[in-house]
Design brief:
alpha/beta, ten-stranded mixed beta sheet, eight-stranded mixed beta sheet, 15 helices, 28% strand, globular
Length: 582
């Protein structure tokens, strides 16, 4: 067999020894034909890999395309540019809004990037009694998805209370797990979401068969979970020095994969899984092991045996790097085809790769996807909290935002009452209001928040995980009303207001969660939203995600849905007012 081309004299990654050695790599069609110290066979052309490092294409097994606020065709070239050649996407965001129709619109899009899928296990994340989503994914939908060979796993199982019911009942998620096992057996993985779950609870969680976790880890949780056989998928917020030190000291590389989970549009322009690798190396993981945990380990986890290493018969998913510091690819090959080359490089004879972002990958969505946000238009008076009983004040339950990550704390604050009005602004708090946006019940829920905006202003969004109802957060009723009205006019998006003016906005006109426009423009707009939030004093490492997950009732510890505040672990409602003060 004749090779189509040979990459010569590169430092090639040796997967099982986790090191680099100088090799030639021949490619025939979609697959690697030969890996040898010297290949002299006749071929169409040679690629000079001298001074470069050749690694397998990156494999990201836990991510959400909707977290980039875009769609598969537009996401694909940006992922490939970063060296990611395979992803396993959990489309539970679009499923929460449009159900199976939303999932199908993603799966039918043809991309150069290989996109496999997870079955959204928690749509909605809790139950229809606790939050309102557009659709539910149940047994019939799961059965249909299990028939598709592109489906590799049951997506992150979130609801601990339903997974391990106190009364031993046969819940929806247990039925879905049973269906997966009976239909596909060992051919399908069961992925989990278990933040701050430990001890007996963790044992029970894993006993159900759900044996992976991608949530934020500590050094202690890494040891406990891996000792119990749980596979860990480490995203950026888990890559602290103590976590990485624990992984390296105990050589847990076989049980760890690096993943992105969520990549904001403005961050996607800078990179994808390659950024996570660079951070892992920066925090102490040897580069050879970081590559292993982002190629072979994740591929093996999802039983993708045709990729994740450089060897004969494997897919020719290859990444050429100039150095092992910034992980910016000089060239990327997907199934043997050059799909990206750095504009500064001229050594690649096949110059057919398009410049990423130059020609947006258009896709036509159903017309009703553009008209999906239906709720009351707010005015400033809506954000006045009235005391239902006489007294000097109230003891309120408050959601406290932290400066890092998406977890919140539950706290209580005494707030004065004057003329029958709860003076939440004078207490230095913000008000969060969730509007049910599907036209099903017209719910509105109110919660008080500490640690959000320090200056006068507000933000509103329909990108509020996971049910994506319309969330407004602020300390100025006028700005809150303006932001909410503008999101309605846009039919979805992120809007920041202050001084009764719109300061920044990013339009998400498809289902209120993604944009059908070019990613470059969306990234610019979202960057301005992020800057406007920071200018108003929102202090978090990811302002966008921090606010959006205030409505995620499976992320610790106190969150809010359109039905009201919830204590996440018990899934019990938490009243806004704990008691009235005399």
């Amino acid at each position: 067999m004749k090779a189509d081309y040979v990459i010569k004299h590169a430092w090639v990654y040796m997967t099982f020894r986790q090191c680099f050695e100088k090799r030639d790599v021949a490619v025939s069609g979609e697959r690697i034909f030969e890996v040898s110290p010297e290949i002299s066979s006749e071929t169409q052309y040679m690629i000079d890999g001298r001074g470069m490092y050749l690694i397998p294409g990156l494999v990201d097994i836990h991510m959400h395309i909707e977290s980039s606020m875009t769609y598969p065709k537009e996401f694909s070239p940006f992922g490939l540019k970063a060296g990611t050649t395979t992803v396993v996407a959990d489309a539970h965001e679009i499923a929460n809004v449009f159900g199976m129709e939303g999932i199908r619109t993603f799966m039918e899009q043809k991309t150069d990037l290989d996109i496999f899928y997870a079955i959204p296990s928690s749509v909605p994340a809790t139950s229809i009694e606790l939050e309102t989503s557009g659709y539910s994914i149940g047994e019939q939908e799961t059965r249909e998805l299990l028939e598709d060979s592109r489906v590799l796993c049951l997506g992150e199982v979130m609801n601990f209370k339903e997974l391990v019911p106190e009364d031993g009942s046969d819940t929806k998620i247990l039925r879905l797990i049973r269906m997966c096992k009976e239909t596909r057996g060992r051919d399908i993985r069961l992925e989990g979401h278990c933040p701050k779950i430990s001890g007996r609870d963790l044992n029970q969680f894993i006993f159900t068969g759900v044996d992976a976790d991608h949530t934020q880890q500590t050094a202690e949780s890494v040891l406990e979970k891996t000792d119990l056989g749980m596979f860990l998928e480490l995203q950026k917020k888990s890559l602290t020095n103590p976590v990485v030190e624990t992984v390296c000291k105990n050589r847990l590389y076989e049980n760890v994969a690096l993943v992105t989970d969520d990549t904001m549009p403005d961050q996607l322009l800078k990179g994808q899984l390659n950024q996570v690798i660079a951070l892992a190396v920066k925090t102490g993981m040897p580069v050879e092991q970081a590559i292993y945990c982002s190629t072979y380990t994740p591929a093996r986890r999802m039983r993708l045996d045709d990729r994740g290493m450089i060897g004969p018969g494997k897919l020719a998913d290859l990444v050429l790097l100039r150095n092992l510091e910034d992980f910016r690819p000089a060239a990327v090959f997907k199934s043997g085809k050059l799909v990206y080359q750095d504009p500064e490089e001229n050594r690649f004879k096949n110059a057919s790769a398009k410049k990423v972002g130059e020609n947006p990958q258009s896709f036509s969505f159903p017309s009703h996807f553009y008209h999906s946000v239906h709720c009351v238009q707010a005015d400033p008076s809506l954000f006045t909290l009235k005391a239902e009983k006489p007294g000097s004040g109230v003891l309120a339950n408050v959601i406290k935002i932290n400066s890092f990550g998406t977890a919140t704390d539950a706290m209580q604050r005494e707030i004065p009452v004057r003329n029958g009005r709860i003076c939440w602004q004078e207490a230095g708090l913000c008000l969060a209001v969730v509007f049910e946006r599907y036209g099903k019940n017209g719910n509105m829920a109110f919660g008080l928040v500490e640690g959000a905006f320090q200056k006068q202003g507000a933000a509103a969004t329909t990108w509020s995980h996971d049910s994506h109802n319309l969330l407004v957060l602020g300390n100025s009723p006028e700005d809150m009303a303006l932001a909410q009205n503008r999101v309605l006019a846009l039919q979805g998006g992120y809007v920041v207001c202050s001084g009764n003016k719109v300061q920044a906005e990013a339009r998400l006109n498809v289902g209120g969660i993604i944009s059908d426009g070019p990613l470059n423009q969306l990234a610019e707009d979202l960057g301005k939203v992020r800057e406007a939030m920071a200018e108003l004093g929102y202090l978090n490492n990811n302002e966008i995600m921090s606010m959006s997950t205030l409505a995620l009732p499976v992320s610790p510890s106190l969150k809010i849905t359109d039905y009201g505040m919830l204590e996440v672990r018990s899934q019990r409602p938490v009243p806004l007012i704990a008691k009235y003060l005399p």
